[in-house]
Amino acid sequence: MRIAGMASNRGRNLLNIADRAPGGAEVAVVLANEADAPVLEAAADRSIPTEAVPADPGESRREHERRVLKALASYEFDLVCLDGYMRVLSDTFLEAAPVTLNVHPSLLPAFPGTSAVNDALAAGVAVSGCTVHVVTDATDANGRVVRERVDAGPIVTQEPVPVYAVEVDHEAETVALAGETDAGGRFPDRHFSGADRASKLRYGENPHQAGALYADTGAGVVGAEQLNPGAKALSYNNYNDADAALAVAAEFDEPAAAVIKHTNPAGCAVADSIAEAYERALATDPMSAFGGIVALNRECDGPTAEQIIDSFKEVVVAPGYTDGALETLRSKDNLRVLVVEEFPTRSETTNTSTPPTSRSSPTASRPPHRSRRCCLPGRRSNTSNRTPSCSPPARRRSASAWARSPGSTRSGWRR
Predict the structure, then answer these.
(1) Are residues 169 and 159 in the same domain?
(2) Both 200 and 187 in a single domain?
(3) Burial 331-356 (b: 16+ CB within 10 A, else e)
(4) Do 234 and 88 belong together in one domain?
């Protein structure tokens, strides 16, 4: 799919398409009706051909559109995408060009026109959003704009966005969402977070669900290198379990091992060596540990690797592996071996300044944690002087998984 993009200012959506190439899409040319539009320089930096076609004084709408079509005539494209193109197009352009889509900053049919954002804020709506729609002729026979026809074409897709008030501190030159901070500064009334999609997953929490991985940092499991690339990629549940196991193992300063199954701890233990720690963790509940995720807070050595492959495991996460351990673990075709070079510390896994977030729905629900004695008695942590806890602590996560059931409008986040 080759796209001809048209913009009047920054054209950030077009540039995002150029950078990400969704579905193999390629931006063939970027045209602006302003000679100094920032999108032209940004596109040129990406080696995308550009055209500038400003309207001449006294030039009619149709005359200008003919010049636009002439400027685009030497390029091959399958679709025209408007991104903040601040001119209403007539049938002169639309009938000569391929299908033309527009990105509009509101949930049409509400708030059409050039002041959609201000109109939505003035109306006090709680939710606005973005609409992609087919551009249709909004002019009369003389080329004059008919307001009732503006942004009235068929809707392709829409994305809702909540609307929040902001608090502006002109002296400090800061802008914050209302309720985002409080007097104590530790626990805000409202917590916001965002993430970029890191990858698509084979399926969601269940096989009938679609899933994707969203990451707010490159650390932890989401940024871990898989040392046996021939093995299958991590699943939705693998990411959840590996993230939980890593957080538990990182709680301790002495050698520690954690085994997690379906986000429930099957075992966790500390010892003088990592091999002994894993042996103790496995002994807690060997049956539940079958098919689980193993996390170690020390380099995995040969004796530990031999114990791990003695029963079926899905994933092993550690800060490093000896050559012998790696050879042993790679002998199991479907055992995913992950190395987390920047292993989190206790201060990074336990975070009191930012509350944990959890969003879920019936279509992507997680079974509740069950109480289980998961640590061998009599072994105490030197740093905490208590029997190690196996419940994952409140912490800043590195990734979120998203699952959606086909045909359902209800979705759920896993954090």
Answers:
(1) no
(2) no
(3) ebeebbbbbbeebbeeebbeeeeeee
(4) no
Q: Which tokens belong to 267?
A: 């075992």
Q: Are residues 35 and 75 in the same domain?
A: yes
User: DSSP letters along 7-52, please?
Assistant: ESS--HHHHHHHHH-GGG-EEEEEEESSTT-HHHHHHHHTT--EEE
92 plus 238 within the same structural domain: no
Domains in the chain: how many in total? 3
Query: Are 62 and 153 in the same domain?
Result: yes
Provide DSSP, 80-144: EEEES--S---HHHHTTSS-EEEEESS-TTSS-STTHHHHHHHHT-SEEEEEEEE----B-TTS-
d(CA 305, CA 415): 29
Q: What is the phi-psi region of residue 315: left when phi exceeds 0, alpha when psi lies from -120 to 50, beta otherwise?
A: beta
Domain check: are 335 and 245 in the same one?
A: yes
Enter the pTM of the model.
Answer: 0.50
The β-bridge relationship of strands 26-32 and 50-52 is: parallel
CA distance readout (Å), 100 to 91, 217, 369: 11, 36, 51
Residue ranges making up the domain that contains 320: 196-414
- Residue matched to tokens 């804020």: 121
Provide the token pair at 146.
């008919």
- Examine the domain organization and report whether 177 and 252 are in the same domain: no
What is the Cα–Cα distance from 213 to 238, expressed in whole angstroms?
A: 11
Q: Check if 104 is active-site.
A: yes
Q: Is 215 exposed, middle or buried (0-12, 13-18, 19+ CB in 10 A)?
A: buried
Chosen domain end from 114, 144, 164: 164
Q: What is the pLDDT of residues 118-134, one digit of tens each?
A: 999 899 898 999 999 99
Supply φ then ψ for residue 15, to 5 degrees. -65, -35
| Tokens 């009619």, located at residue | 60
**Hey, CA dihedral for 115, 119, 122, 128, is it positive or negative?**
negative
The CATH number covering residue 28 comes to: 3.40.50.170
Tally the residues of the chain: 415
pLDDT digits (tens, 9 = 90+) for 6-55: 999 999 999 999 999 998 999 999 999 999 999 999 999 999 999 999 99
Question: Looking at the DSSP assignment, which residues form a beta bridge with residue 27?
Answer: 3
